[in-house]
Amino acid sequence: MSQTLAARPEVVAPGAPRSEHRWWALAVLALAQFLVVLDASIVNIALPSIGAQLRLEEGALSWVITAYVLPFGGLLLLGGRLADRYGHRRLFLVGTAGFVAASALAGLATSGGMLLGARALQGASAALLAPSSLALVTQLFTAARDRSRALGIWGAVAGVGSAAGVLLGGVLTGALGWEAVFFVNVPVGAVVLVALPFLVAKDRPATAAPLDVPGATTITGGLVAVVAALSAGERLGFTHPLTLGLAAAAAALLTVFVLVERRSSSPLVPFSVFADRALTVGNVVMLLVGAATTALFFALSVFMQAVLGYDALAAGLSQLPLAGVLVVVAGGVPAVIAKTGVRRTLVGSLALLAAGLAWFGAVPSDATLLADLLGPSLLVGIGLGGAFVAGTQLSVHGADEGESGLAGGLVNTSQQVGGALGLAVLATVAATRTQSLVESGAAVPEALTSGFAAAFVGAAVLAAVAAGVAWRFAPRG
C-alpha cells in the first residue's frame, strides 16, 4: 500500500456523498454491519427453541451457526475483491438485499433443511456486504481526525454486535419466539436499502484488473475447509477422519492459492499488502480477539442457562451492563487514540479484556449477577470497546482506494476465522474438562462450571497474546 489515506489531504473519494451527508451515511453503513455481526451470535440462546419446533437433534443444532459462518468466512476475501472490481456501493446493496431476503426465509422456515439453506444464503450475502461497507467508510472519511472518529464508531459496532447478540437473542426469543431473531433483520435491512442510495452516489470501480478466478476459487475453498475443519473438530474431535480430511483439504487448497497468487498478474490478494506492518499486526490481533470473544459469548450464554438456571430472557438481559459500557467506552476511544496512539490504546484495552476474561474463570457455580458477574462484565466491556476500535483502525490504516475492499475483507476474515478457531478449540477444552470431572464423581454443576472456567481462562490467554503481539510489533506513534 503505497500511501496511507491518513497522510493524504482531504479529498472526497469518487462517488462519495457531500460532506454534510457522510455521517448519516456512516450511520446507515454501521447499522448494516451491526446486523452482520449480530447474526453470528443472536441464534445461540434460540437454539433450544429451534430444535424443539423443527425437530433438530442436538448435534444438528450447531449447524444453524456453522451454516452461516462457513460461507461468510470463506467468501469474504472474494467479496472484498468483487467490491473493488465492480463498485463498493453496488456490492453493498446486492449483499444487503440478499441478507434481508435470506433473513425472511429463515424466519419462515418449516424444516431444518430450509433453515440451514437460508442461513447459508445469509452468510454469503454478509460476505458481500461487510467488506463493501468498510471500504465505503474508508473512502468517505479521508482526513485523519474524521477517519479516526468514523472507524471508532465502526469498531464499536463490531463489539456491540457481538455482545448484543446474546442480549437481543434472549429478549426476542423469550417474548416473540425464535422466528423473531431472523425477522428483526427485515425492517432494519429495508431501511438500509432505502436510505443508502440517497446518501452515497454511485462509485466507479476502484480497480480495472480482471478477477483472479483461480485465486478466488482456491482461497474460498481453503477458507471454507478451514472453518469446516474447526467446526467438525468441535463436534467430532480433532482426530476424527472427517476433521483430518477437511484439514488436509484446507492445507492443499491454501498452498495452491499461494502458488497461484505468486504467478498471477492481477492477484486476488497481492502479498505486497502484508509489507504494511500496521495491516498485518492489526489482522493478527483481530484474529485473536475474534477467537476470544466468540468463545466468551457462547460459553457465557450456556453457563447462565445450564448452570445458573437463567431462562432465555434473563440470560439476554444480563448482557446489558457489558453491552452498555462497551458502547460508552468505544465512543471515547478515538480521543484516547489521538492522545496516546493506536498501539498503547490497543495494548491497554487487550490487557483489560484479558483480566476480565480471567475473572470470569473464577466465577462460582452459585454466582449472582451483582456479586460475581457484574465486575468481569464491565471489565470485558471496557476492553472490548477499545480493542475493536483500535484493532480496526490498525487493520485498515494504510488501505488505498484500490485495496479498500480487500482490506475490509481481510479484517472481517480474520475475525470470522478467529471466531471459528476459538469456539472450536475452547469448546473442546470445556467439554473435555467437564467430562473428566463428571467421570471422577464431581457434581454436574461444579463440573460444568470448571469446564467453562477453563474456556474463559483460555480466552484470557488469547487476549494476552494479542496484547503482546501489539506491544512488540505494532508501529509506534
UniProtKB/TrEMBL annotation:
Pfam families: MFS_1 (PF07690). It comes from the Bacteria. It is a multi-pass membrane protein. Gene3D superfamilies: MFS general substrate transporter like domains (1.20.1250.20), Multidrug resistance protein D (1.20.1720.10). Keywords: Cell membrane, Membrane, Transmembrane, Transmembrane helix, Transport. Residues 25-477 form the Major facilitator superfamily (MFS) profile domain. The chain crosses the membrane at residues 23-47, 59-79, 91-118, 124-144, 151-176, 182-201, 213-232, 238-260, 281-308, 320-338, 345-362, 374-394, 406-431, 451-474. It is found in: Cell membrane. This is MFS transporter. It comes from Cellulomonas fulva.
